[in-house]
Amino acid sequence: MVSPKIAPSMLSSDFANLAAEAKRMVDLGANWLHMDIMDGHFVPNLTIGAPVIESLRKHTNAYLDCHLMVTNPMDYVEQMGKAGASGFTFHIEVAQENWQELVRKIKSAGMRPGVALNPGTPVEQVYPLVEGATPVEMVLVMTVEPGFGGQMFMPNMMDKVQTLRQKYPTLDIEVDGGLGPSTIDAAAAAGANCIVAGSSVFGAPQPGDVITLLRESVEK
Ligand code: DX5
Ligand code: ZN
SUPFAM superfamilies in the record, alphabetically (predicted)? Predict the structure, then answer.
């Protein structure tokens, strides 16, 4: 069985108090901290980059699960590695040509490579990356169009998760977008084990209860 990884999306946190927000999530049981890096080009929103990861790294030992919603992921590998990112997940939509080199570089920069796919991208596109000589170690199935927190979960993406889980029983499969108490059971039943949750965690009166509930659903 693959172990559950609950990853609050720090996009929904108070960026002015990022170190304290990170500690709060870890203390409440988060396994990973999901960091959404957007370049205002691959997606119509602009967030943070390596300098913020570097600053945060000085305050936490937590696994920083970095999701790069950028057009040129290769340009950020070295700086993200130096900044202390733990995972580096790029989008297949912008890495059709050079994913092998990209994965190699991510590994040699000391990070765990992952590949993400947008709702409109067929799941078959990631098979070569999971089966390659230098494989990715996680597939992130987007369950909303990337760019913003607080959107509605797309249940029809669960077919992709199910297909991946059947093919790859031990692969880390992450879902991102609209996950919370009302959608977790569908994602867990399909076979997702890494759960990103932004607004449902940070918007809850008791975020720790939501983190616990998400974990228990994956463990069921
Ligand atoms: C969306 C980001 C998500 C987002 C999730 O592009 O990749 O990580 O923060 O937020 P919620 O959980 O609010 O949908
Ligand atoms: Zn994300």
Answer: Ribulose-phoshate binding barrel (SSF51366)
159 part of the active site: no
Cβ–ligand 1 distance for 198 under 6 Å, the answer yes
| Nearest atom in ligand 1 to 197's CA | 12
Q: Report how far ligand 2's centroid is from the alpha carbon of 89 (Å).
A: 9
Q: Domain of residue 132: give its range.
A: 5-219
Domains held by the chain: number: 1
Q: Which ligand lies nearest to the CA atom of residue 198 in the structure?
A: 1
Query: What pTM was estimated for this model as a whole?
Result: 0.98
CATH of the domain at 213: 3.20.20.70
Closest by CA position to 210, among listed 195, 190, 192, 188: 195
Q: Which atom of ligand 1 is nearest to the CA of 199?
A: 13
Whole-angstrom distance, CA of residue 180 vs CA of residue 38:
22
Among 35, 29, 63, 34, residue whose Cα is nearest residue 51: 35
Provide the residue-wise pLDDT of the chain in tens; the chain has 220 residues. 699 999 999 999 999 999 999 999 999 999 999 999 999 999 999 999 999 999 999 999 999 999 999 999 999 999 999 999 999 999 999 999 999 999 999 999 999 999 999 999 999 999 999 998 999 999 999 999 999 999 999 999 999 999 999 999 999 999 999 999 999 999 999 999 999 999 999 999 999 999 999 999 999 8
Atom 9 (ligand 1) nearest CA:
149
Determine the 3-state secondary structure of 125 from DSSP.
helix
Dihedral sign computed on CA atoms, order 96, 35, 153, 194: positive
